[in-house]
From TrEMBL:
This is Cytokinin riboside 5'-monophosphate phosphoribohydrolase. Coiled coil: none annotated. One of its GO terms (cellular component) is cytosol. The keyword Hydrolase applies. NCBIfam families: Rossman fold protein, TIGR00730 family. It comes from Asticcacaulis benevestitus DSM 16100 = ATCC BAA-896. GO terms for biological process: cytokinin biosynthetic process.
């Protein structure tokens, strides 16, 4: 059974370990951190202090919110841990992703590279297999995710993905829309007209 609005306590953010070219990405990471802290939602993330990951974590922490970072041992020197936040060191990437999943009630996908894609594709695959019903929200800053959405629509058009799968994840354009989208996606009954299909 999907979580209700009041049961969303921890939000996992998948995002890049770089800032990207558009300054809007970094600003969105900072703003999202403030919003999560203000809503008393714990951030769960990959544990690094670099790029959008680090910006989001520092923003939550500096705004008085709770943060859980999950860092593979081999990345400790490459993606320096953010000072002052709860960080768990794990053995490998698989353990990191599983712990991030288990510790989170919902997921937000910000701009990122192949690492972010790998994380969200696995999450979406699990959803396709009915292994979870946790909300998945893409923060589509300046249309960053449109090429990815086009690919997913192509798999549906070519009959490799059922059309109903396109209703299992959602896209918003602004940080302010993230928490309302999580709340709507987490309700047991969702009015299809309130969803933004990709």
């Amino acid at each position: 059974m999907p979580l209700t609005k009041n049961e969303i306590r921890s939000v996992c953010v998948f995002c890049g370990s770089a800032f990207g070219k558009d300054p809007a990405y970094k600003q969105a990471a900072h703003d999202l951190g403030q919003i999560l802290a203000g809503a008393a939602m714990r951030l769960v993330y990959g544990g690094g202090g670099v790029g959008l990951m680090g910006e989001t974590a520092r923003s939550v922490h500096e705004s008085g919110g709770k943060v859980l970072g999950i860092m593979p041992k081999f990345l400790q020197n490459r993606e320096a841990i953010v000072d002052g936040v709860d960080t768990r060191i794990v053995s490998n990437m698989h353990e990191r992703k599983m712990m991030m999943f288990e510790e989170s009630d919902a997921f937000v996908v910000m701009p990122g590279g192949v690492g972010t894609l790998e994380e969200v594709i696995e999450l979406m695959s699990w959803r396709r297999l009915d292994l979870h019903k946790k909300p998945v929200i893409f923060l589509n800053i300046n249309h960053y995710w449109e090429p990815f959405f086009a690919l997913i629509r192509h798999t549906e058009a070519e009959a490799f993905t059922p059309a109903v799968f396109l209703d299992t994840f959602f896209s918003v354009d602004t940080v302010e829309e993230v928490l309302p989208a999580i709340a709507r996606a987490g309700l047991h009954t969702v009015d299809i007209d309130t969803r933004r299909r990709v």
